[in-house]
Specification:
Distance between the termini: 42 Å
Number of domains: 1
Radius of gyration: 19 Å
Order of helices and strands: EEEEEEHH
Number of helices: 2
Structural class: mainly beta
Helix content: 10-25%
Low-confidence stretches: none
Mean pLDDT: 75
Length: 129
């Protein structure tokens, strides 16, 4: 599974890299209602997270109009790909979190990386006396 770093929302606890609450590659079984047929679910996989849009974040000095800005680490939207027919849709992260609570997803957080072993910026150095 691919981890998503520096996200919003992110897991609580000892999480200096801000690993997200949903991992890329998670498979969800979302409802696919068809009229006249019994209730069915189809598998969808999390493909990527989109950058978040911050509305009216900057003023354009030439036109005098406010412009939207796209910020990394503020992922509100997710791209899902259907495993049945390869169709892609964009949904909100909060919708997938609700599906996780209802048991239609994997139902677990992605593992946190061993920061002290693999990330130089967070290594604890022993003091030399």
């Amino acid at each position: 599974m691919i981890r998503q770093y520096y996200t919003s929302p992110f897991q609580v606890g000892n999480n200096p890299l801000r690993v997200g609450t949903i991992a890329s590659g998670t498979i969800f079984r979302l409802p696919a209602p068809v009229s006249g047929r019994p209730y069915r679910t189809r598998p969808w996989i999390v493909e990527c997270f989109l950058n978040g849009a911050m509305g009216a974040a900057a003023l354009n000095p030439v036109t005098g109009l406010w412009k939207d800005r796209y910020m990394r680490g503020r992922s509100d939207l997710v791209v899902l790909r259907s495993l049945a027919n390869a169709r892609r849709v964009t949904v909100a992260v909060r919708y997938l979190e609700r599906m996780n609570e209802e048991g239609l997803g994997d139902g677990h957080y992605p593992d946190l990386p061993d920061v002290s072993r693999f990330h130089n910026g967070y290594r604890c150095r022993s003091q030399v006396s």
